[in-house]
Amino acid sequence: MSTSEIVSILALLVAAGGFLLNGKKSAREDAGALGEIRGKLGSISAGIDDLRVEMRAMREKQSSMSAEIIGIKADLEGLEARFSEHMKRWHGEER
Questions:
Q1: By the number of CB atoms within 10 A of the CB, which of 4, 28, 41, 89 ranks highest?
Q2: Which residues are within 8 A (CB) of 26 and not within 5 positions of it... i.e. 6 or more apart?
Q3: pTM of the model as a whole
Q4: Domain boundaries along the sequence of the chain
C-alpha cells in the first residue's frame, strides 16, 4: 500500500470519527478540524518519505560494505595461499 493510500485511509477514518463524535459542531469548526487533520497527516506523510530516503541510503551503504567485505575475503584467501606456499618451501628446506 502506498503512502498516499495510507494517508487517505487515515484521513477518512479520522474525519468519519470526528463527524460521528462531534456531529453538532458548526461547518466552520468542522473545516478547521479537517484542516488540522490534513496538516498532521501531511507531516506524517513527510516523515514516511524521510524514512524511505534513509532506508535507501542504508541499503546503498550495506551494498557498498558487502562489496568491500567480498574484496577483503578474496585478499585473505590470496594471503592464505601465499602463506601455505611459503610454509611448504620453508619445511622443505628444513629437512
A1: 41
A2: none
A3: 0.49
A4: 3-94
Q: Which residues make Cβ contacts (< 8 Å) with residue 48, sequence separation at least 6? A: 3, 6
CB under 8 Å to 18, separation ≥6 — which residues?
A: 30, 33, 34, 37
| 3 neighbors 49 (Cβ within 8 angstroms) | yes
The C-alpha cell at 53 is 530516503
Per-position pLDDT tens, the chain of length 95 = 677 777 788 777 777 777 666 655 566 677 788 888 888 888 888 899 999 999 999 999 999 999 999 999 999 999 999 999 999 988 876 55
Single-letter code of the amino acid located at 9? I
